[in-house]
Predict the structure.
Amino acid sequence: MFAAAFSPDGNTMAAASKDKTVILWGVTDRDTPVRLTTLSPDAQPVNAVAFSPDGRTIATASGPPVSDLTRPVMVTGPIEHTSETSSVAFGRSGRSLLTASSETTITTAMLWNVGDLPDAVARATELACAAAGPGCTEQEWNVRAPGLPYRRLCP
């Protein structure tokens, strides 16, 4: 295990590992922890993990080239450093994320605005449809997804 963090309410623990996973443990009863789920946020060992202040989002730091913002349902968005990301922390409001990395001969820290992430996750279909337009016609669907039954994706 490389790193561990408690959720703000203290009922969940995230354990980051060199086996490229984050295991979430229910620790309401400290004498008998319960394994909740295993996340695989990246193809690299996970060096650090942090919960957002509201406890709904987990950030992980891993080897090159990305750190992932991760929810237990595995909605991810990459944040890039050029070398291994070693540390990750949310700001008090949960709208900022700090990542740190040892780039070749210097250490870098990057501050990210992640304030819209919870809203974007909740409205993913709406936002995707707004960006993509009306979606595929049945004819376009048959070209792009042959063999799958047509369904309208965007209203």
In short: The chain has two domains: 3-115, 123-155. Helices lie at 117-122, 124-132, 138-144. The domain at 3-115 is CATH 2.130.10.10 (Methylamine Dehydrogenase; Chain H). Confidence is low (pLDDT under 50) at residues 64-79.
